[in-house]
């Protein structure tokens, strides 16, 4: 009988446990992707992510066709759509790789419904290194701090890779599918995606090339990862976000290369994958990560309202704050859908601390403009910067974006790339005084603590 494989954040053929299990079952395989803008549990993806999704699905459809089965596209509330598809195809089983956001409630309900209807429903571990419910501290609780969390993870084995299907057979009758074009995931007028197109080529084949190139050529220099003008980070974040490559593949590729590479840089890199893992584990136990402060005393933090800070927020979004490192980052983001991590820290801290704007305003802008916008990493990092998050620094850290630039972009190569007018009269004065706004933020923090 036909097996239905429902893909979500795992747009790949290699190391895809659900797809591998479907192949093992024998019989026709129908692979479906559902664009779900309807279910309350699903956070609708932002504009840059939609661009990525379009191209990643195009690539996946080509790969699946080569293997022998088409990619079926459907739109709507996934719970209903999958059940309809089971009825249409007479599928005897539905397989998927697990997700860990609030959307997992959809999966749990669906699994129950399908089984009640006599259809097999099975889910697999695929998109994290470790299943969140299995990594707990001595009292069986999820870890709240990264370092012990990652130490515990490092003592465990990562699962082996799932085998890659050599062939998939299609059902005898074609299954109707939407056309990707009808989803309108790409911008029309204005076409803002030019810079993103020039920067990225979505899809699994390019993701695997990017992984190999990084490990073979760049990893040795990863110690320079904080310098935004050096291209020494992996740029795998959108690939991991859409599952064009799995963290397990990255893990095995890095650890098997370590004898040749420097173990310290490899550990540093794996530690960053560990932050991804940590944020997903946090989201698993705190599904409102993008909406609510983890530390509730921040509920009384005296943020400026969006209307009070409207002009400053606009200047921040469009890279016109008069603070070169922040402006360079915000322009890189707008143009390419990406921003270097060190600059994300500086730009986010500037918005939250110097402009005293609620972290959720920044989180939403990043959500819309990043190609790697990730349901756990984005709010997790914003809450970390705001100090409201799980593993917050013990003091109220305020990055100084001028000192950050001197330290990490001493020759101003990154800044000049994105803000060529930085040394001319055309460049604006700072929208705030850094020293004064720093004192204002510290006073706001003290009042928040005192109110508790
Ligand atoms: P590398 O240095 O090569 O790291 C490898 C992988 O590790 C990354 O691809 C990513 O999956 C993970 N990783 C690295 N740093 C972090 C981190 N600090 N937190 C969690 N995972 C990390 N990352 C996202 O993937 N999506 C987001 O939406 C996102 N939003 C962010 C918002 C803010 C305010 C900040 C400060 C950081 C955010 N990050 C986010 C984390 C980080 O900036 C990016 O993962 C990183 O810049 C991606 O580049 P890379 O793949 O070259 O990283």
From TrEMBL:
EC number(s) reported in the record: 4.1.99.3
InterPro entries referenced in this protein's UniProt entry, alphabetically: Crypto/Photolyase_FAD-like_sf, Crypto/Photolyase_N_sf, Cryptochr/Photolyase_FAD-bd, Cryptochrome/DNA_photolyase_1, DNA_photolyase_1_CS_C, DNA_photolyase_N, Rossmann-like_a/b/a_fold
UniProt keyword terms in alphabetical order: Chromophore, FAD, Flavoprotein, Lyase
SUPFAM superfamilies, alphabetized: Cryptochrome/photolyase FAD-binding domain, Cryptochrome/photolyase, N-terminal domain
Source domain of life: Bacteria
GO molecular function per UniProt: deoxyribodipyrimidine photo-lyase activity
Gene3D superfamilies found in the cross-reference section: 1.25.40.80, DNA Cyclobutane Dipyrimidine Photolyase, subunit A, domain 3 (1.10.579.10), HUPs (3.40.50.620)
Domain Photolyase/cryptochrome alpha/beta: 1-129
Cofactor(s) needed by this chain: FAD; (6R)-5,10-methylene-5,6,7,8-tetrahydrofolate
Similarity comment: family membership: Belongs to the DNA photolyase family.
Protein name: Cryptochrome/photolyase family protein
């Amino acid at each position: 009988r036909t097996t239905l494989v429902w893909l979500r954040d795992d747009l790949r053929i290699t190391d895809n446990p659900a797809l591998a299990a479907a192949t093992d079952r024998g019989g026709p395989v129908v692979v479906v992707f559902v664009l779900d803008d309807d279910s309350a549990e699903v956070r609708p993806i932002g504009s840059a992510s939609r661009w990525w999704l379009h191209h990643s699905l195009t690539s996946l459809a080509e790969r699946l066709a080569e293997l022998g089965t088409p990619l079926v596209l459907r739109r709507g509330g996934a719970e209903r759509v999958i059940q309809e598809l089971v009825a249409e195809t007479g599928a005897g089983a539905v397989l998927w790789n697990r997700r860990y956001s609030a959307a997992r409630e959809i999966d749990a309900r669906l699994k129950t419904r399908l089984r009640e209807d006599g259809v097999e429903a099975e889910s697999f571990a695929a998109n994290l290194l470790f299943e969140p419910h299995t990594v707990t501290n001595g009292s069986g609780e999820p870890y709240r701090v990264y370092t012990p969390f990652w130490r515990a993870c490092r003592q465990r084995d990562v699962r082996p890779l799932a085998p890659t299907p050599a062939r998939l057979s299609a059902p005898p009758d074609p299954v109707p599918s939407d056309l990707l074009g009808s989803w309108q995931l790409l911008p029309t007028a204005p076409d803002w995606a030019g810079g993103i197109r020039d920067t990225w080529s979505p899809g699994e084949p390019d993701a695997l090339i990017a992984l190999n190139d990084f490990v073979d050529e760049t990893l040795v220099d990863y110690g320079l990862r904080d310098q935004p003008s050096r291209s020494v980070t992996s740029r795998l974040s959108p690939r991991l976000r859409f599952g064009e490559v799995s963290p397990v593949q990255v893990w095995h590729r890095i650890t098997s290369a370590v004898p040749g590479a420097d173990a310290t840089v490899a550990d540093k890199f794996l530690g960053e994958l560990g932050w991804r893992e940590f944020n997903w584990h946090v989201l698993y136990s705190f599904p409102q990560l993008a909406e609510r402060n983890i530390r509730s005393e921040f509920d009384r933090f005296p943020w400026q309202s969006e209307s009070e800070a409207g002009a400053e927020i606009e200047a921040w979004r469009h890279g016109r704050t008069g603070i070169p490192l922040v402006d360079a980052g915000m322009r890189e983001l707008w143009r390419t859908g990406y921003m270097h991590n060190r600059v994300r820290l500086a730009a986010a801290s500037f918005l939250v601390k110097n402009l005293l704007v609620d972290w959720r305003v920044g989180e939403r802008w990043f959500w819309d403009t990043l190609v790697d916008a990730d349901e756990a990493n984005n709010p997790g990092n914003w809450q970390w910067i705001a100090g409201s998050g799980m593993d917050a620094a013990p003091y109220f850290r305020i990055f100084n974006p001028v000192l950050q630039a001197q330290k990490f972009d001493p020759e101003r190569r990154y800044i000049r790339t994105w803000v060529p007018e930085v040394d001319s009269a055309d460049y604006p004065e700072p929208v705030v005084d850094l020293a004064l706004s720093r004192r204002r933020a510290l006073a706001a923090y003290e009042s928040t603590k005192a109110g508790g």
